[in-house]
From TrEMBL, chains A, B, C, D:
Its EC number is 1.1.1.18. Residues 6-126 form the Gfo/Idh/MocA-like oxidoreductase N-terminal domain. Belongs to the Gfo/Idh/MocA family. This is Inositol 2-dehydrogenase. The lineage of its organism: Bacteria, Bacillati, Actinomycetota, Actinomycetes, Pseudonocardiales. Keywords: NAD, Oxidoreductase.
Amino acid sequence: MSDQDLRIGLIGAGKMGADHAVRIHERISGARLVAVGDPDVDRARQVADGAAARAEHDPFAVIDASDVDALVIASPGVVHEPLLLAAIERGVPVLCEKPLTPDSKSSLRVVEAEEARGKHLVQVGFMRRFDPEYVELKRMLDAGDLGRALLLHCVHRNASTPPGFTSQMMIFDSVVHEFDTARWLLDQEIAAVSVRWPRSSAAAPEGLIDPQVVTVETTGGVLVDVEIFVNCGFGYQVRCEAVGEHGTALVGADSGPVVHHGGRWGGNVTADFRDRFGTAFDQEFQRWAGAARQGGVDPAAAGAWDGYAAAAACEAGVLAQTTGARTEVELADRPGFYA
Amino acid sequence: MSDQDLRIGLIGAGKMGADHAVRIHERISGARLVAVGDPDVDRARQVADGAAARAEHDPFAVIDASDVDALVIASPGVVHEPLLLAAIERGVPVLCEKPLTPDSKSSLRVVEAEEARGKHLVQVGFMRRFDPEYVELKRMLDAGDLGRALLLHCVHRNASTPPGFTSQMMIFDSVVHEFDTARWLLDQEIAAVSVRWPRSSAAAPEGLIDPQVVTVETTGGVLVDVEIFVNCGFGYQVRCEAVGEHGTALVGADSGPVVHHGGRWGGNVTADFRDRFGTAFDQEFQRWAGAARQGGVDPAAAGAWDGYAAAAACEAGVLAQTTGARTEVELADRPGFYA
Amino acid sequence: MSDQDLRIGLIGAGKMGADHAVRIHERISGARLVAVGDPDVDRARQVADGAAARAEHDPFAVIDASDVDALVIASPGVVHEPLLLAAIERGVPVLCEKPLTPDSKSSLRVVEAEEARGKHLVQVGFMRRFDPEYVELKRMLDAGDLGRALLLHCVHRNASTPPGFTSQMMIFDSVVHEFDTARWLLDQEIAAVSVRWPRSSAAAPEGLIDPQVVTVETTGGVLVDVEIFVNCGFGYQVRCEAVGEHGTALVGADSGPVVHHGGRWGGNVTADFRDRFGTAFDQEFQRWAGAARQGGVDPAAAGAWDGYAAAAACEAGVLAQTTGARTEVELADRPGFYA
Amino acid sequence: MSDQDLRIGLIGAGKMGADHAVRIHERISGARLVAVGDPDVDRARQVADGAAARAEHDPFAVIDASDVDALVIASPGVVHEPLLLAAIERGVPVLCEKPLTPDSKSSLRVVEAEEARGKHLVQVGFMRRFDPEYVELKRMLDAGDLGRALLLHCVHRNASTPPGFTSQMMIFDSVVHEFDTARWLLDQEIAAVSVRWPRSSAAAPEGLIDPQVVTVETTGGVLVDVEIFVNCGFGYQVRCEAVGEHGTALVGADSGPVVHHGGRWGGNVTADFRDRFGTAFDQEFQRWAGAARQGGVDPAAAGAWDGYAAAAACEAGVLAQTTGARTEVELADRPGFYA
């Protein structure tokens, strides 16, 4: 790395943004937060104060600031597109929390803008790519330790949902991680998506279909099933079992201290994604900061094309949810720029 | 139990029959083998000799023998129907290895014959109902420990298949266990079956689609997915994870001595179904022998109706396999006799 | 086996005796209970009735009965010696619950009597030798899978103790199992015993030193440590980790269905020794019954010499407990009869 | 934190020093390496170059440099004392890899110097205090979740030893971690140490007694046993099971992806301490850097007194190793400064 710290502007001072501000300020080497932008400027100020940064009402003021070397976008997905386009235009590296944008059309515009700019600047926050177990699973699959991959069995559970969480959000906010995981682990695109569900849990809020089972077919003939259950009650759990021709590998098995007490053995379930993936987030940010100081992005991370492909899979998923039918994913041709 | 040993006639002296002969002779209390019938009388004699029983060429000679109190049928499924009808007519309790019969029509004839006889005589060898872990899972579900059941995730893997094993047999011989397990655990019928598959493993013999994923919908709105992979290469593995409204429970986790050696930790995978379910078979036979000495069947076991329902689900499964479409299971009305 | 059932006389109708009566009656092939002897004849009758056997007030009446082919002794250890000597004199095979006798002098008299009789008739109920995991561990050690054994780490925990349980009984009733396990797994004698302890648990009854740590040195230079904790509160747990030159193996890891519920993952701890070792007891009895029908004992089981050696180790253990000093075990020369 | 980066001088450019240089340069927020001192100045330069720092031949030049705000000492233990005294005199915070010094007398001199200086400046690198599982175990013990602690069972295994590794080093280099762990987890001092061992492994180099079992008594009456096995062959393994009055908790259980392959289930053993405790080191350094920027030390970390107490326990351990006798630890009175 160069001697100079990477000066980061953060857009979005919600829960995720606040978490990242602490991360950058307290745990990331060679980087510091200089500005926090949020229309709710009080919220921005609160986050900024903890990190000795300044607060801005206008996110674009952060993007345009001459002392901002790189951007973290943690605002709601619906406002990502103009922020990303502005950042690409200015040529600053961006770590954008998923989703890239909420739909594939706008995602494709980001892809095209980046391609036109001719420089990889956009990274999407699919943090599982930095979880040590997932990294090891990818290594095994790439090395052929299990033979060719045939199936992935995925489980994605949350203890409960905030008010207003919809069945569509189960795809866009939750299963989007499995879409990216499958693409990344297998080096294949998603070809089609189907969605089925049992009767809903009594713990699911009115109107929410929960749990659901999403089935994914990849271009390489792998079948992926995903249980998404966002009101499971007992904690946050993310598991993936890869089934290959000669063996299987499971990531996300229970871990932590093993207690014997009161007639039971076992341990604690992780409470939420920060508890489960905190180290992965740190890794992701540290590697991104290192790459951004060189003006680029981390090649191990998800880029704009990955964000676009995930958005396209999500759209197919929501359509499949609505129609009950197997739905093919339509992808633009992959530009050589993203080969 | 009464003072008198239960005198058992065994029909079918193949691998399964031979295994059961040893079981009855060496491990089951209050029962002894008196006759073994198999068209291949040499094979029958070999099995009979080990258990101090006599060999018969004609299976019906075993059914009709005056010193036979109860029957175990371990011959191929295609010959079950006439054997079962003869046993029902004679009024002797029968423990019939699965399948009851190979198709639902003939199974229904057995059901009707038993109902006409007015006495429960037929038990089907779904041994998982006697596996201690499955029994505990059923107890939890019945007690509502996990809330209402919503999903079952099942995995059923064999190291490899014998010559001649077909994709249809993956349903009839293998997934039939999951059909029965789901019906029993949930106290629900199977409403519909779908089958999908990834590209087949290079280890699968020519013509075999392996692995496959079977999805089951139950009359109570539970969704069950079953990975059936009969050439997985590494051993025999049967797992079932029940997902309820408030929690999950998994049976079939890895067990046995945990070894650290050569940079690895872990243990042995069970080699085959005898290794995995040996204790369950013993339990099944011991309880059946106890019930048969009273002239009846074990109420905890699968009966003729269960055999019929499993056959109907298998037919739907094979149809779904062929057509690629979700296929509904058509069941006769359940007679009060089987309530 | 011969055609004739083994006719078993049971002496001792306490908890253990009652358990064995059910075992013989309901789960053991080729054997039946004919007589139950206990000075408390009501208790004897209760146990006998359930198994269609007769009750006797005088245990020697059971030993002398002409219709008794073999004996199970489940009475208190203090009365074992005369019963065993009478059985040896009559030449009937005996399965004697541990301890063989409560002290090494009387145990040696049993050894000498059996040797004088010139026939192996006595088997001691160290059931762990029939637990599938221990059997596999023994196989690994014998095969050298882990290299030469160096250490054994043992844990032996009970939820709580009945009234009157003493520190000495922790050695004689509990650690005696580890003494036999170590001798059997290693094919070595116990050379010396030391005992240490931390402050006692507040849950330990007045006067009981609980937990304790017993250290054993074997004649082959293996060091064995045993945590004995009889009021651990949470269940029954028996674990043994063998450390060899190239690897380790652990038996007794937690098993059973794995549940996720209420923020926790895990399962149930076995409640007591019947829950943990039920299958081992069944195996032990079945194999013993088979051998006894041939007039002998099971070579895989513990014999009189093993009972004697365990008693000698227990005496050293209690002495070590009292003096706080390392105490050597004094063994008679092993007769060729027990080679 | 203040706006200014903490400027760190590193003394010792061996394996550990090089590892910490990378850590500071690439993963620690708010800190940077400015100087690396090692008598082997080529080695120093190599390490310094990777972190854009300067190399020094004379460690004291690093301590005295005006641009060094804090020190990391990773040189051999025998040279720690003068370095620490100089740092204390200059008033700069020091993170000193264990041991504080190689004997209790010199450690006490460091303690006294720090006390005389009147400011907590010295932190000792017992990184387990920052391992998430150990932190959770400490929380449980402090909260009384398991009742009062009674026993600790510890296992500490390395795949193999470098040339020249001695039996004494097994205490000073390895078990010293368990001494600190026990003191920290229990908030008690070590009262006495005993050492025993089985026959040595054939894999142990000539002259090395390996494995050994160290038994520790604490001032609060807890008994701690430690298996130290430094040529176990299969990897690096550190486990600790705390046994309390109402329950037990184990840290260091096997983790990582679970693979089924070739008839086996399981995963990889961690290869070395960096693999096992990398995250703990990062945490330790990050927290220390934060505290050092305020001019102090991390209160959660081990201080000079802890380093002294560990050295005293090591001395007792080595004496116990030599004499074969239980050896009491003699500690100076704990000054109020370290209360």
